[in-house]
Every structure is written in C-alpha cells, then in structure tokens.
Amino acid sequence: MVLDGGLATELEARGHDLSDALWSARLLADAPDEIVAAHEAFYRAGADVAITASYQASFPGFAAAGIGRAEAETLLRRSVELAARARDRVPGTRRRWVAASVGPYGAMLADGSEYRGRYGLSRRELVAFHRPRLEVLAAAGPDVVALETIPDADEAEAMLDALAGLGVPAWLSYTVESGRTRAGQPLADAFSVAAGRDDVLAVGVNCCAPGEVAEAAALAREVTGKPVVAYPNSGESWDARRRTWIGRSRFAAADVARWRAEGAELLGGCCRVGPADIGALAHSLRLP
C-alpha cells in the first residue's frame, strides 16, 4: 500500500506560507480547497492513503491562535472530510484510505520538540492532551488514525491509552535517529508498546532519514509481528530556529525494494517528499 508524501511540502509548492505555529492546519480554515487539491495530487500520483492536515491541530494550539472550541472541532472534522473529498475526485476502483493524522505533543509547541520528546509531562497529562482530538477525529470517520512522528515511547503509550475504546484502528510510527527513538530509547522497547494491541494495525517509522528505514522495519516486524509502516522524509534536516530544511534529498524510490524485503508494507514519504516522488515509489511497486 502506498502512502502519500509531505502534505505541507505540496502546499508550500502551491504557494502557501506555513511558517506560523499551526502549520498546514491553518489552511483548514483559510484555504480548505487547497488542502483538497494537495491530497488529490498525491492520490493521482499513485497514493492509496492520504494523511490529513491535522498533525499540528489541537485544542490548545487552536486556542492560542484565537480559535474557540466549537470551531476547532469543526476544523478537526474538516481535515477528514477534505481528504475524503479528494479521494472521491479520483477515478478508479482501487480502494483508497483516509488516515487522520495525530502528531505528538511537541508538534503543538512548534519549536522542533517532536524531534526531542521528553516534555516534562506525565503520562496522564499526555493522555488528557491527546484524547479530546482523538475523539473528534475518530467520530469523523477516517479509515485509520496515524499516530505519527512520535519521538518517545512514553508518549506512544499515552497515545495508545487515549485511543482505547474509540473504535478506530491506528498505526503507530516513531521518528528515529541512529537506531533509537529521538528521546534515546531502544527501538525494540518502543515498538513493543504496540505488541498485542488489536487496535494497532501497523508499526514503524516516519519523518526520519531514509537510511534508517530498513533496520527499523526489520525490528518492528520482529518485535510486534505486525505489518510495518515506513514513510521517511527526504533526508534533509529541519532547522527549528530558522524554520527551514537544510541539506540534500536522499529519498529514492529504488530503496523501496530493500524496505519491502525487511517487512515494510505501507510505504510512502514525509516532509520534502512530493507527488512526483510518490509517483516513482508507486511505479516501483507496480501500483499505478
């Protein structure tokens, strides 16, 4: 199954400035048709799954931007509705999914904390942060929830606590570096939090360098026995102070064969990976 690429990357390519704290979630209010168009571009390139514009969306984050509770709920639901609208515009009989994105607490801080973790919050506080938006997103009817770019196994456990009983399956993907979570935990321990969870369909990594994928995929499969999800970024690095990407792209569709050999079944891209990259990836998997 082919996932999409970086939604914000495509929105920026379409001329949008996403430098504020809400990132792509701002366009849920300001330019919803542009989000539909970006999703549609990935679907038409060959993606089977669109990940919604809700990664950085949360009630506290919206409140800081002057958006009240009722409107925030509307925007969260809208994120799912826009992806579904894009899906319905694309012809063909192949099933296409909508994945409701739920990013880590650090994403709301908009200071690069999702690449560090360890926010100084208790598990109970993290559950209290994640549960309300999960409730709204689950009720909007996505096919799956993407618990993504998680830097810390402790936060992953809190997110799975928050997911419990909502009646929607999820995948869990960590952002990693040098074979460990961004908080420095062994990946075997991090993946193990999802073992035995029937509501977790897949486990893996995202928003990491492409070179991290193969080893992590093999370990995720070994530890959990679940399908593996893998959607790295381009290999460039995010400079949180300057709010820009630096370095060069190392994302290559040719790497997909190795990722698949190590057990990855849900494959795509993250930041700085555009529709053309996903098209090449889909072609390498012989998925039009």
Automatic annotation (TrEMBL):
It holds the Pfam family S-methyl_trans. Keywords: Metal-binding, Methyltransferase, Transferase, Zinc. The lineage of its organism: Bacteria, Bacillati, Actinomycetota, Actinomycetes, Pseudonocardiales. This is Homocysteine S-methyltransferase. Zn(2+) binds at C207, C270, C271. Its cofactor is Zn(2+). Residues 1-285 form the Hcy-binding domain. It comes from Prauserella muralis. GO terms for biological process: methionine biosynthetic process; methylation; S-methylmethionine cycle. One of its GO terms (molecular function) is metal ion binding. PANTHER family: HOMOCYSTEINE S-METHYLTRANSFERASE-LIKE ISOFORM 1, ZGC:172121. The keyword Zinc applies. It comes from the Bacteria.
